[in-house]
Amino acid sequence: xxxxxxxxxxxxxxxxxxxxxxxxxxxxxxxxxxxxxxxxxxxxxxxxxxxxxxxxxxxxxxxxxxxxxxxxxxxxxxxxxxxxxxxxxxxxxxxxxxxxxxxxxxxxxxxxxxxxxxxxxxxxxxxxxxxxxxxxxxxxxxxxxxxxxxxxxxxxxxxxxxxxxxxxxxxxxxxxxxxxxxxxxxxxxxxxxxxxxxxxxxxxxxxxxxxxxxxxxxxxxxxxxxxxxxxxxxxxxxxxxxxxxxxxxxxxxxxxxxxxxxxxxxxxxxxxxxxxxxxxxxxxxxxxxxxxxxxxxxxxxxxxxxxxxxxxxxxxxxxxxxxxxxxxxxxxxxxxxxxxxxxxxxxxxxxxxxxxxxxxxxxxxxxxxxxxxxxxxxxxxxxxxxxxxxxxxxxxxxxxxxxxxxxxxxxxxxxxxxxxxxxxxxxxxxxxxxxxxxxxxxxxxxxxxxxxxxxxxxxxxxxxxxxxxxxxxxxxxxxxxxxxxxxxxxxxxxxxxxxxxx
Length: 502
What we know:
Helix content is 21%, strand content 20%. It is an alpha/beta fold. Among the domains are: 1-61, no CATH class; 64-189; 360-502, no CATH class. The longest helix is centred in the C-terminal third of the chain and has 14 residues, at 443-456. The protein is flat and about 70 Å long. The model is unreliable at 311-316 and 491-502 (pLDDT under 50). InterPro entries: F-box-like_dom_sf (IPR036047).
């Protein structure tokens, strides 16, 4: 047998430069650091060929993050290097300087960024307020701006600057919306994320940014803060393009802020003709609050209810009556929602996400929502016994079951056999994902899984099982020989549901 030629180049060195450049250009994080394993500089240390290709790949250097607490001594040289290698692409950057770290050195670094403002595409700026007043002049490529001043009373953001492509703005906690009324191009904004809004500031936002598509705000509603109840700020308002609206409790808000916000101020007079997704994340959510949201229902597709502290009130009440929301198909339940107290048009639901369900609650949902297509649930065992009635989920194609993070690895909290019971049939199932940590799937639970899959006669395409163990690697394929080719052992236990922050 001939020996391999040791002088032949490694396969990775035979990748054409244009292909390698495409690969390397996808490596960096949104805002990569200047140093460390996540820095683009690390790619130049692999070999001379990689270094040459990396240097000539502008997209690899078109984003960066500068933070005062971790800035290297040679900031100016590194910044010049980044700007030179990224030209002529647009720039995306995070620039963060705390008030205590502010110095002429960081101000001169910001001046370098200002000299490149014609290339700004995504800018996230967390600095003392004086920095923002220096953003003057045209910003022809700017699409997204995040404003995080370290002090109140910031003024003159984008003073005299034109930003014709700016559509997304994030307003930090220290931003007072009233002080920016004449600074931002509100009418062209489509996405606004506010970290701290008073009720009356919602009125300012709805009055000026009438082309919003997505709005996500943390409400700081406190007693007596509605000092301006003029018609200009209380409406009525019509947001003809708003499809996603998220209302979240600010950590310092009064407990009943949601009730007060829905009864008074701009939300009370708001018309949303195309609203698709409504998310409410509050300290308390009660039936009386949800009554004020009924006018949003005719076009609603997705409803998310996420009480922050305390369960949804236990008295039975109807959130959406039959026929009131004909397009309603997706529901998200936060951790403290008690589903026994909720009436919904369950039969029209196709997608369900829940952050804390008992097996008995899952079985109830399967009985009342037979048309589910996708179901993602964090499960905690309530140790209830009893033989559940048979149920067939004829349309369910994707099922994700994840252990709730509450209990420790005590056998009394094992829940898998309670969900995959002897009466469950899933004939259309294509994707099944089970993240069982901190438990290990044992032989009895594999038996329950096998019974459900064989009884269902489904054509499973993907089966994820976690945590991966030597036992599971050997036993899963032996117990499920017909599905051996689609079994994937997954060690990750990442968050079940991720929210879009854009």
